[in-house]
Every structure is written in structure tokens, then in C-alpha cells.
Amino acid sequence: KPELVVYAYDSLVSKNGLGPKVFPEFEKQCGCRLRVIAVGDGGKLLNRLQLDAAAKKQVAQVALGLDEPVFARARQWLEPWGEWKPKGLEKLLPEVAASQSKRLSQGFLPFDRGVFALMVDREGLKKAKLVAPKKLSELLEPRFRRTLLLQDPRTSTPGLAFLLYSHALHGSGSAGLADFWTNLKPSWLTLAPGWDEAYGLFLKGEAPLVWSYTTSQAYHLEHGDPGRYEAVLFDEGQPMQVEGAAFLKGAAGNELARKFMEFLISPAFQKQVPLGNWMLPVVSGITLPESFKKIPQAKKYVATASD
To answer: In angstroms, rounded to a whole number, what is the distance separating the alpha carbons of residues 133 and 145?
Structure first.
């Protein structure tokens, strides 16, 4: 069978992730073999592209799981669509199409989206005699010493999002951002390599706060522990993430790669996004589970990505 090779981040291809739910369907449709290579968190995907370029070898045809900042840094190894356009593009939600219009022209295809937020363990907070912060700046206070799990911005897209978010709110000059991180450091328990590692420590009770997504609350609602784990929105507003896919250099004309891109925005894929990847779909006509209707809705967003 013809083969398509795709790079993706770990949680997407894990046993309980989105990949096992949707990839067999694509193989059935295309009559091909889909080989998905897990490369770590989203930031490590960028590292893999750099290594391939340095070694002058082409392994994959598609990169899956690039968010806006990583896409901007990876563009030298990616290829625009050219005159071809994926079928179904017209079904992108208006707000997604509008926010991603420039990136769409550069070959970025959105496949899911999410709102970053602080997830809190209510039992852990109660044990530590703490109240959840209402502002990002509250995390600098001594009462939150060693209570926060973050992801490393060098290897993790959520970690990079937190860095850009802090820059947007406290980065008026390099000194402002440096001061924020200097004062925040006592609050860390650790900087984990990726989201999986950080959230795993959170669930083990190592710390009561972790940087994640509002949709993480839906996960816990679906898995029988409502009330303990909740998403907290900051008064300053929340950053949003749109994840996408792109052709690697030389793959824009690959027929299997094109079919895969179209599959990502098809109903068969998009309807699995909420309970498969714990993110929000990017096309219209997808019914959200009840748990997703109960998560907090951000009233204000903070722009962090740039083209």
C-alpha cells in the first residue's frame, strides 16, 4: 500500500488520544498506510524539523499539531498549498477563518482550537488553605510558592503560550518580563517538558495548579470527578490556541498528503475532536458534548500569536 508519513505530538497519537479514533478511518478511505511518528510536545516537533533539515533527509510529508507561534518559526521547512485548496475549507467557522486568514494563505490548515486556562485542584487548594487566583499577577505572591506546574516554552506549545501570554500582560520592556519571571520562579514546582508530563504530575497531586485548557474541565466532567478539577479564568483575559497542519517541503503535490489535509476538516475527523483531543472543532455543524457546554466561557481574549 502507498504510505503517508505524518509528524504529530505525543498526546494526539497516544492510546486514548484522537489518533486511534480517526486514523483508521483515513486509511480505509485512502486505501493507504498512515505512519504517524510521535515527536514529543508541539515544540519538539519544531526541533524534529530542524534536525531533518540539518541531516538533509525527508522523512514525513505532513506536520500535524503546529500552533500559530510554532508555525511561524517552522515556515522555512514548510510548503504553501499553491493553487490547490482543500475541500471543505468553506466550512471553517467564521471566527477561525478570520483569525487565520493570513496563515491559511501560507499553508496553515486549522484542525482544532482551545482556550488556555489555569486548571485547579480544589482539594489540593483546600489542603494548602489557598483560594484560586483571579489574576495572573497573583501567582507572584508568596502564598503560591511551589504550587504551579508549567511546561517548558522551549519544548511545549502550552509552555510557549504561557510565556507569550505573560509577555502580552507584563512585557512592557524586557525588564518588565524579566521581573515577572524572576518573581514567578518561586511559585513553580517544575517546568515539565510537555503538557502530558505536567498534567500527569497534577493528577498525582504534586501541585494544585497547572497550565492547561478550559476543556480539561470537560474531561473531568466526562470521567466522573466533577467539582474537584476546574478551569479558572483570569480577569486579564485568556489566550487562545489554534492548532493546524502543514505540508513539509516538496509534499504540496502529494496526493495522499492532500487527502489527509481534507480529512482533517471533514465531519468524520471534526466530530471526534472534542472527546478525542479535548479541544474544540474548527468547522460548523459539529454538536458539542454536554460537558463542553458546562466549561467556563472566556469573555475576553489576549492576543499572543503574531505572523
So the answer is: 13
pTM (whole model) above 0.90: yes
Range from 48-62, 121-135, 268-282 carrying the lowest mean pLDDT? 48-62
pLDDT tens track for 60-97: 999 999 999 999 999 999 999 999 999 999 999 999 99
- HEC secondary structure over 108-157: CEEEEEEEEEEEEEHHHHHHCCCCCCCCHHHHHCHHHCCCEEEECCCCCH
- Residue in this structure with the C-alpha cell 489518533, named with its chain if needed: 19
CA distances for 184 relative to 23, 120, 138, 172, 216, angstroms:
41, 17, 10, 17, 24
* 283/287 Cα distance (integer angstroms): 11
Residue 298 has φ and ψ, to the nearest 5°, of: -65, 135
